[in-house]
Amino acid sequence: MAAAAAAAVGGPQPPQPELPAAGLALDKAATAAHLKAALSRPDNRAGAEELQALLERVLSAERPLAAAADGEEAGGGGGGPGAAEEEALEWCKCLLAGGGGYEEFCAAVRAYDPAALCGLVWTANFVAYRCRTCGISPCMSLCAECFHQGDHTGHDFNMFRSQAGGACDCGDSNVMRESGFCRRHQIKSSSNIPCVPKDLLMMSEFVLPRFIFCLIQYLREGYNEPAADVPSEKDLSKVLQLLEPQISFLEDLTKMGGAMRSVLTQVLTNQQNYKDLTSGLGENTCAKKSHEKYLIALKSSGLTYPEDKLVYGIQEPSAGTSTLAVQGFAGATGTLGQLDSSDEEDQDGSQGLGKRKRVKLSSSTKDQSIMDVLKHKSFLEELLFWTIKYEFPQKMVTFLLNMLPDQEYKVAFTKTFVQHYAFIMKTLKKSHESDTMSNRIVHISVQLFSNEELARQVTEECQLLDIMVTVLLYMMESCLIKSELQDEENSLHVVVNCGEALLKNNTYWPLVSDFINILSHQSVAKKFLEDHGLLVTWMNFVSFFQGMNLNKRELNEHVEFESQTYYAAFAAELEACAQPMWGLLSHCKVRETQEYTRNVVRYCLEALQDWFDAINFVDEPAPNQVTFHLPLHRYYAMFLSKAVKCQELDLDSVLPDQEMLMKLMIHPLQIQASLAEIHSNMWVRNGLQIKGQAMTYVQSHFCNSMIDPDIYLLQVCASRLDPDYFISSVFERFKVVDLLTMASQHQNTVLDAEHERSMLEGALTFLVILLSLRLHLGMSDDEILRAEMVAQLCMNDRTHSSLIHHIPENPNPKSGIIPGSYSFESVLSAVADFKAPVFEPGGSMQQGMYTPKAEVWDQEFDPVMVILRTVYRRDVQSAMDRYTAFLKQNGKFPGNPWPPYKKRTPLHPSYKGLMRLLHCKTLHIVLFTLLYKILMDHQNLSEHVLCMVLYLIELGLENSADEEADEEASVCGPERCHDSWFPGSNLVANMRHFINYVRVRVPETAPEVKRDSPASTSSDSLGSLQSSRRPKVLQRENSGTAQVFSLVAERRKKFQEIINRSSNEANQVVRPKTSSKWSAPGSAPQLTTAILEIKESILSLLIKLHHKLSGKQNSYYPPWLDDIEILIQPEIPKYSHGDGITAVERILLKAALQSRMNKRIIEEICRKVTPPVPPRKVTAAEKKTLDKEERRQKARERQQKLLAEFASRQKSFMETAMDVERFFFSDSPENDIPMEITTAEPQVSEAVYDCVICGQSGPSSEDRPTGLVVLLQASSVLGQCRDNTEPKKLPITEEEQIYPWDTCAAVHDVRLSLLQRYFKDSSCLLAVSIGWEGGVYVQTCGHTLHIDCHKSYMESLRNDQVLQGFSVDKGEFTCPLCRQFANSVLPCYPGSNMENNLWQRPSNKSLQDLIKEVEELQGRPGAFPSETNLSKEMESVMKDIKNTTQKKYRDYSKTPGSPDNDFLFMYSVARTNLELELIHRGGNLCSGGASTAGKRSCLNQLFHVLALHMRLYSIDSDFNPWRKLTQLEEMNSQLGNEEQQPEVPILYHDVTSLLLIQILMMPQPLRKDHFTCIVKVLFALLYTQALVALSVKCNEEDRSAWKHTGALKKNTCDAEKSYKVLLSFVISELSKGKLYHEEGAQECAMVSPIAWSSESMEKYLQDFCLPFLRITSLLQHHLFGEDLPSCQEEEEFSVLSSCLGLLPTFYQTEHPFISASCLDWPVPAFDIIAQWCSEINSFTERHAEQGKALLIQESRWKLPHLLQLPENYNTIFQYYHRKTCSVCTKVPKDPAVCLVCGTFVCLKGLCCKQQSYCECVLHSQNCGAGTGIFLLVNASVIIIIRGHRFCLWGSVYLDAHGEEDRDLRRGKPLYICKERYKVLEQQWISHTFDHINKRWGPHYNGL
């Protein structure tokens, strides 16, 4: 052997295949043992060499791939490659085991496994668990086994489907708390594991390095650089397929446990081994070649191997040494999009220096070597390199992750991963399968970076942060474009292009998610925040997103193409900017971290300053453009907020100068104004997507990273800037400056008239939000959570999950406010009541909802918060409606309330300046003007505007500075301040200031011009709104104080320019040239000056408003005049309800409270009994518009009235019309007036029907028949009855399987086939009923229509294209009146009620006469009536009935197409409908009353149709069972027909079937006495059957005893009515045959050991007969319209029998009731019984066994039920979601379970398709005749299949909060909701799926 090995050294030789296989195996084992021995010696060099040589030969790398290549050429040639591979693996296994068996070796190694960690690795779609209570890291996850073995009761956990794959963390205390470990991993078992014996793994240490090297060589060989534009996936996957066995082998090794893993770690990380084997030196050509390929691969990846010293003078990738690299990299990585191959070649040739110019090369990238130097020093590093090159094959990933439980490996692997990080990014960008690859990357990285200790170590040793930030920066740099914001031509700013695949497909996601993950570790985040260079780079990165996805308003036509890039933009800002920001913020919670905040703020401001410079921003934003993305602003805002809230930093120390603040506020303000524009439909030409952006901006996942920081930043700016400047900027941005004039008409140059009102509302709403929102200005986290929750609950009641979804979660997972955490639940229980899920019978299932508590409506409802958080405007209205309803209900306020005024939480001292906005003249002028305009009824002002104005005034009074120094002195205001509106800036004082005249500029057409000529005299003493907007400011400017802020001065001048001015004071200011943006010269009509006399103050306006609102003169009376207490101890509630009137009263009271002067002036105003406001002269034009308005108003009122009328009509219809639900779900039958169909009162008229289409009433006639709207459906519900009361359970283990042979359908089936074996076919088909499975059930909504009307209705439906949900071609339609689903029309038989009544009169004929009459009537053949419309319809409906069910449920005869089949089918339809009605009544008739389906029953009509058809088939009178029942025959007739099969003995006939046959064979309408006669005759037969069954039931002794006791009484007078006598006679007759024989030992077991008493026998007989009596009574009720009596259960028999006329009238009910007394024998009882028994005897002569089996047994069927489901959904899920399908033996993608029979099926599975039907559809036809109820295991929902349609029904499993969890998205534990399941079962039994579930769709057989 040694010689052979020596020979092999010379070079690879082909293996010698001559050795026989067995010899070879022996040989391997022997060689392995020999080598192991040689290696165990102290001097083992020789052994080592020998082993190397052997491995060299066995693992030669050239062979498999060469073979593979040949194989490919030869068309996938023979087993060449495969065989060689196998061989090599076999050798390795043998060598590892050292000569022993491989299995034993595995077991031996496993014994040394210190299993402290689980580490199970899984791939996408695996079901895992996450427990937040036990997790330390938010990414923690557990496999199902560890989860169920641990104790997590009461924890906050959920089940989830893994998206990217993961690994189980059980046992790892870095990631989860030890209390959550499962039983297996709790024991730290390393202590008691013995150490591994040296020789066990010795061979592994020698063999594995070669094996892994061999694998690497394969990988090198197999990789070819993709040629130009041809994706190389094919080749790669081929190589990987070949390597599958090798990698699986390695994976199996990792599963052997810790001992083997540590060997593998040694092998993978040993640098010496790697160097020796892969350096490519030495004489082995093969190794050289593979090394070259490796270098090529490195180079083509834009990476260099440090040894190529020609290019780089770098040995190690150490920081900061790369100089050349920057230029080199610009060419070497294809950062600009796709790499084209020509470029590649050049790069290889000339090391491509500086080939390509980027848009921007970041100067701050510290270290180029991060991007392009890779040096591999160990197998592990090169393995990872190839794993990345091959785009992360799943097997390799799993192998690398399986090794992670080894700590040493974990560290080495993490470092290697970081070293390759840049390379991963490049590969990811080029990849065609970036989604899959992203998932695989995260699968790995989340395992590495979730561990804080490890992350810290790698950050310190491998510059992890530098690498990540640099890599992210480079990645984004590849898709930059020039920003068009502000200055399109000269802008230097670049932004990411949201249309690029990189952003659109979220390719950056894995890298960003890693970054967020490591920032969640405090130690790492601190390093980041301390590193100034990193912060600069990061701000640089964030600035790429600043101003992306710019929107430009379309002014002329609609955009052609709506771009959807905004999704990408919002996602990118949230993921790449906001989430890292929240991660950093979570570490800035305490004073000690102030420095970090200062750093971030500093670099953020620098970046912002650069940005303003880059876009050339001065002071005016460019008009008509907006971007929603300002991440730099938001970083700045959030760090400021944190600094003040948590770190006690002084705000001013981190704020920039005023000029910067002014710039900062512009863009966020622009967004707020644009929101108002978008909602005012000014952006409508930009398409829907702009609305989408406005919604996303405020939507719950984005709002706390978008709108909240923006508003906070504006609040900060407002608190530090000049309030007049700020307010004027707001109105200017919202474009409503021109509207704020006293004149009744004005000219707006920037806004169309129709948008003015909503923009004004927008501006005021914004101010209200700005001034009242306290989210970042002093609220605690709990208060914020409470406010958010209240706002959401006020809009609508919400489920728990939708609350969690709508409340902006604190985006950083470690912050403590995780929905579901303690604070969330406690706040929820404080503000809301839980409404348990209710079930409207209508089937619309409610979920458990939370609704606000009364005190929340009373004290906490905050409209401001609601407005801020609504995505849809309608939600604000909804909140107000709910609020109004609450107030009405509780009697707090009857009228239409206004949004309530709510006192705010006090401001944090740093933001006190914000309140100056309320005390600035500009705002007071605006408020005054608006109050005046509202009072004067100017256009475009709404109640909403007034509401906001009053709100702002009230806010100002609440927050006024308390000093009113010289109250008295300022009385002479007007004289002293002639040039100004208001004397000071305090609202309290300004409120009482009277303004006499105002000069305005108005268009010449305005009414004011006509009235006053401009009086020159008063011009000096007039302040005008437009001019003296800011006198104070102007004075300041003149006196030279305001020169510093030139920007402000400019801005103000511009503002004055826009507002034309005319006061002398203002004219002194130099006018800048008008900005052309605002008014196009010449376009506007001439403006002229007018002077208005006003003579009002804010107070007087308020009082007049009070009069106006209340509609009464002098309605306001100061309350303190009556009760002075009000002023001394004012009780102003924190929260006030009411409308405008109460708001005005509140404001006046507050004004009076705050100053004596105000109080006096209010009193004065009230004393001058104010004359009404003088009516203005109305111009013709205005009159026209007023008339128009009035007309509109009237039209609106008319419309409302009509609608209301219509609604009430509809309502009354709904109440009177049948309501399916009420019928099926009421417990007691309702005594509704029966429809005209069932006629209970004797009337002489014919039945009259209303046609719901043409509305005419009239009888149904032969020519123009009327029909009932009916739905025909096949049903197998009856067949699902079982004979035990215990419902069957859904199987949840392999043992519990359900077998269908005890169902009613199966039993009936067996019986029929047994009869058909022994008796004549035609006779068999009369002895039973079918339709237990696939029977046709007919139901109606009770509405009738003319059949010709129906036809035209169907025609119109056919032409109507929009119809969905049902198929008109199949005859489906909805009832025109009640919209109930239907598919046929059942003709009503013409006939007067009169004759009906005649038929019901009892006659005094004897039973014998009646029997003869019945026989005669049956004998008359029924001719089909002449060809009338009616008969045609009868025929067509019969066809419909037949086609409703499948052929297999109709054809039971042995001769296909025999008329007996049709006959059987027809009477069985009647049977099915009667039986089902009985089931709907609960299985008995105790409740009585009209049929619960009373007015909706169509049995009467159905009987007519069936009878008409059945009479076409006359039964040959010889075979008519009626003969056998009523006449004695001569005995000899029985002997003649020995040859052919006999008839079915009459005792084997099903009596109910006989009843239906007899009745349907009679001419209709039937006479009551004939009916009773038939029932009496059949009851005698039934009773005899009961006696026979009873006699068989008891044992031999009992029989003989009864035989004797009865025989003694045989000759008494009422022997025929004594069951004892009859029983003894039956026994004696049957004893003649063999029925009682053959009771061997085996039979004894069946015999019940009951001792029969006379009571128990009587009960048995009654129970036997009851089902027949019930069906008969129902039939009688439908045919003759008699009510059913109600009764107790125990007296049901006697009540029904007397109701059917079986009981003689004189019967006394005192002594115990005896069933036999109902008997009325048509011929002597003993004779006829003897005759019947003889038939059986002659049969049992030949077939004794079957003779017994065929006896009619007592009916034991219980009501049908669906399977019983387990309490907890998890039990179903765990058993079924991994179960294999019995048909295709795969695990289905969508498993489903039938809830009727428990069959497991593949939903939509193509694998189980048969003749184009998928399995669920097929099963629904076989199991439910077209109705299927399936539980979708992976979604927890139930799906209903009905014929060709299906619908999602909902779920019967709800979580702890009463909610469904469709698709198990939330993964919370689910519990059965019994009420819902009951509703489902009820709908199934009552066949109302079609009516109750509304959302049906066609399934095209694909389910």
Brief summary of the model shown:
By secondary structure, this protein is of the alpha+beta class. Helix content is 49%, strand content 6%. The chain is built from 77 helices and 30 strands.
How would you describe the overall organization of this protein?
By secondary structure, the protein is an alpha+beta fold. Helix 20 runs parallel beside helix 23. It is flat and about 125 Å long.
Structural class: alpha+beta
Strand order within the widest beta sheet:
24-23-25-26-27-30
* Structural Rg: 46 Å
Uncertain segments: 1-24, 61-81, 308-366, 812-820, 963-979, 1010-1050, 1057-1084, 1172-1179, 1216-1244, 1392-1399, 1490-1494, 1532-1538, ...
Largest sheet: 6 strands, antiparallel
* Proportion of strand residues: 5-15%
Summarize model confidence as the mean pLDDT: 78
Coarse morphology: flat
Distance between the termini: 64 Å
Number of helices: 77
State the assembly state of the protein chains.
single chain
Binned, the helix content reads 40-55%
Q: Strand tally, please?
A: 30
Present the secondary structure layout.
Elements: H1 2-9, H2 21-40, H3 45-58, H4 62-73, H5 80-97, H6 102-110, E1 121-122, E2 127-131, E3 142-143, H7 144-149, E4 157-161, E5 166-167, H8 183-186, H9 202-222, H10 233-254, H11 258-269, H12 271-278, H13 285-300, H14 325-332, H15 341-350, H16 369-372, H17 379-389, H18 394-402, H19 407-419, H20 421-430, H21 434-449, H22 452-462, H23 464-477, E6 480-482, E7 494-496, H24 501-504, H25 509-519, H26 522-530, H27 532-543, E8 551-552, H28 565-585, H29 594-614, E9 625-626, H30 631-645, H31 658-679, H32 688-698, H33 707-720, H34 723-733, H35 753-772, H36 781-795, H37 800-806, H38 822-831, E10 832-835, E11 849-852, H39 854-859, H40 863-869, H41 873-889, E12 901-902, H42 921-935, H43 943-958, H44 973-976, H45 987-990, E13 995-1003, H46 1007-1011, H47 1031-1038, H48 1046-1058, H49 1064-1067, E14 1087-1096, H50 1098-1110, H51 1125-1128, E15 1135-1136, H52 1140-1154, H53 1156-1167, H54 1180-1216, H55 1220-1225, E16 1249-1250, E17 1257-1258, E18 1266-1275, H56 1304-1318, H57 1321-1327, E19 1335-1346, H58 1347-1359, E20 1373-1374, E21 1381-1382, E22 1384-1387, ...
Antiparallel strand pairs: 1-5, 2-3, 2-4, 6-7, 8-9, 10-11, 12-15, 13-14, 16-17, 18-19, 18-22, 20-21, 23-24, 23-25, 25-26, 26-27, 27-30, 28-29
